[in-house]
Automatic annotation (TrEMBL):
<feature type="transmembrane region" description="Helical">
    <location>
        <begin position="15"/>
        <end position="40"/>
    </location>
</feature>
<dbReference type="InterPro" id="IPR014743">
    <property type="entry name" value="Cl-channel_core"/>
</dbReference>
<dbReference type="Pfam" id="PF00654">
    <property type="entry name" value="Voltage_CLC"/>
</dbReference>
<keyword id="KW-0812">Transmembrane</keyword>
<dbReference type="InterPro" id="IPR001807">
    <property type="entry name" value="ClC"/>
</dbReference>
<feature type="transmembrane region" description="Helical">
    <location>
        <begin position="52"/>
        <end position="73"/>
    </location>
</feature>
<dbReference type="GO" id="GO:0015108">
    <property type="term" value="F:chloride transmembrane transporter activity"/>
</dbReference>
<feature type="transmembrane region" description="Helical">
    <location>
        <begin position="145"/>
        <end position="170"/>
    </location>
</feature>
<keyword id="KW-0472">Membrane</keyword>
<keyword id="KW-0407">Ion channel</keyword>
<keyword id="KW-0406">Ion transport</keyword>
<keyword id="KW-0813">Transport</keyword>
<dbReference type="GO" id="GO:0016020">
    <property type="term" value="C:membrane"/>
</dbReference>
<feature type="transmembrane region" description="Helical">
    <location>
        <begin position="371"/>
        <end position="391"/>
    </location>
</feature>
<feature type="transmembrane region" description="Helical">
    <location>
        <begin position="257"/>
        <end position="276"/>
    </location>
</feature>
<keyword id="KW-1133">Transmembrane helix</keyword>
<dbReference type="InterPro" id="IPR050368">
    <property type="entry name" value="ClC-type_chloride_channel"/>
</dbReference>
Length: 412
């Protein structure tokens, strides 16, 4: 009886403690995400009004690369640094990670690099959360949970998907294992950060609710086949980005010169070939179009190439929104091939390529529900799980650990 009463008395104290910590982390993370989203809107609008800014992309890459070399060497590893600190805590993540990655990402978008925003949100969230771990003198295990909260809150607030953010923070750490002791803290921080971001007046993209067919054999088979292709596309994206990064590191030892070269190639292509500007920046208008009407397959390949070159050469940002673009346009092309509704395969492609690249099928399924409505749930789950299986043993996060293999034969 005493143990039972002790349980019921200790639980409210535990919940209250984590709610307080969630407020301390979620409010500043949501505020940072709101400012970041507003800054991205300004950068995108300015670039679209002044397309000649693309000529300055090599200089922008050189300057940001030099700043990270000179002042940000300790935070250069970005998302992987945060994941490593969760797995093996060593030192507090420097707070300068937040302003440096924020400014670096906004500059990348202003001048036309093809990068995303999730990496910036995760790094801002992790840096802010770890400052509280230091100030509150938290032990190593509690600090791990706090960093998970930072990841989830950053993801949730920048995309407007608190449920997906909650599970993403738990799922991205390791393949085959989730930290359920962090579930409530991560949920609380994600919801608070999301609400804070909205209170500041930040706007998220609202995608059309997916009108999908009822579950039947033909669309399910189409989604299964598409899911396998989405996984292979995710694997291609990860491989190509890493290959470009490795090649440039071998050829160009001085880090700031790599984004200069990558930026020069991108600028020359954009200014010399009409229509390629649809492959720079976030590409949200193309995503919205691909969810409604047919688009050509070369949109997928164009975004794949420009994003791999941008990230591989060292521009700051993230992979996720470009993966949304790649998945949506690829799903659109597959819908035309399989004679299925564009809305079905484009919507599931939106999340499934990301699921395979990040090894986060559950978070990606929840994101589909939050963005496209509950009717997409069974199709999104099928596509995300199949993509996860076909994407291979590694993804876009090098520090992501393998706790259990995706299927028994993989370890052989």
């Amino acid at each position: 009886m005493n143990q039972r009463w002790s349980y019921f008395l200790s639980l409210p104290c535990w919940i209250g403690r984590w709610l307080l910590i969630a407020l301390l982390t979620g409010i500043p993370i949501g505020t940072a995400s709101a400012f970041f989203l507003m800054a991205l809107d300004w950068a995108t609008g300015t670039r679209q009004m002044h397309p000649q800014l693309i000529w300055a992309l090599p200089i922008a890459g050189l300057v940001v690369g030099w700043c990270f070399l000179r002042f940000g060497n300790s935070v250069e590893r970005g998302n992987n640094l945060i994941l490593d600190e969760i797995h093996e805590p060593r030192a507090t993540i420097p707070f300068r990670m937040m302003p440096m990655v924020l400014v670096g990402t906004v500059i990348s978008h202003l001048f036309g690099a093809s990068v995303g925003r999730e990496g910036t949100a995760i790094q801002m969230g992790g840096a802010i959360a770890d400052q509280w771990a230091h100030r509150l003198h938290l032990d190593g295990e509690t600090r791990r949970i706090l960093l998970v909260m930072g990841i989830g809150a950053g993801f949730a607030s920048v995309f407007g998907t608190p449920l997906a953010g909650t599970v993403f923070g738990l799922e991205v750490l390791a393949i085959g294992a989730m930290r359920y002791d962090a579930l409530f803290p991560c949920m609380a921080a994600s919801l608070i950060a999301h609400a804070t971001c909205l209170l500041w007046g930040a706007h998220h993209t609202h995608y059309p609710t997916a009108i999908v067919p009822s579950l039947s054999l033909t669309p399910v088979v189409a989604v299964i086949v598409a899911g396998a292709l989405f996984g292979l596309m995710a694997r291609l994206f990860s491989w190509l980005t890493q290959r470009i990064s490795t090649l440039l590191r071998q050829v160009i030892p001085w880090a700031p010169l790599r984004p200069f070269v990558g930026g020069a190639i991108i600028a020359m292509l954009i200014m010399c070939v009409a229509g390629l500007d649809r492959y720079i920046g976030l590409g949200v208008p193309v995503i919205e179009s691909a969810l409604r009407t047919p688009v050509p397959l070369y949109d997928t390949l164009g975004k794949l190439g420009f994003t791999a070159l941008s990230l591989g050469s060292g521009f700051k940002g993230g992979e996720v929104t470009p993966l949304f673009y790649i998945g949506t346009t690829f799903g659109n092309a597959l819908a035309q091939l399989f004679h299925q509704p564009v809305a079905l395969l484009a919507s599931v492609g939106f999340v499934a390529v990301f699921a395979g690249a990040a090894n986060t099928p559950l978070a990606s399924t929840l994101m589909a529900i939050e963005l496209f409505g509950p009717a997409i749930a069974p199709y999104a789950l099928i596509a995300c799980v199949i993509s996860y299986l076909f994407s291979g043993p590694q993804g876009i996060y090098a520090a992501q650990r393998v706790e259990r293999h995706k299927w028994p034969g993989m370890k052989h």
